[in-house]
User: Fold this.
Amino acid sequence: MHDTELAETELGDTLLGLARAAIAHHLGRGRQPVVPDEARLRERGATFVTLTEDGELRGCIGSLRRSRALGEDVIANAVAAASADPRFEPLQAGELDRIRVEVSLLSEPEYLEFADEDALLAQLRPNEDGLIVFSGCRSATFLPQVWEQLPVPRDFLAALKRKAGLAPDRPVPGLMAARYQVRKWKEAEAEAS
Assistant:
């Protein structure tokens, strides 16, 4: 394994460990996590923490902007994914051993220029780009992982517009968009007992 790959693996293991420890502490099943004193964890970072249970989404919360230290960001988003995703009831302590944690580290968003939605669609890179759409005070994002469920760019955009509370089936005046990429790490599947 090359030094770069090893560093990426170590970073991923650290972020996953912090996320799981933060959730365990929040649920009363562990100590408060301590962020290791490493420069890369003190740098500002934007993460999303995704929780799945039996392969089904159980919570996903994150940051689009790098507004706090990476270690703090992943801890805050892990707790929020377990307790504040409005689509789900808060995670219960008994579920902790059944959830699988995934951490996505976002690149800086790149704003896209486009004349219409067809031009926007032409710029999307399936399975590579996460996308944020904005219109007025409405916005929403899909991580690149969502391409697995919505592989057709037009369907991806329509579902994202719907998530933002925008009309999915017609052009939205003044629509703006930004794309980003992620580095992601996922816990291994739990061993069957």
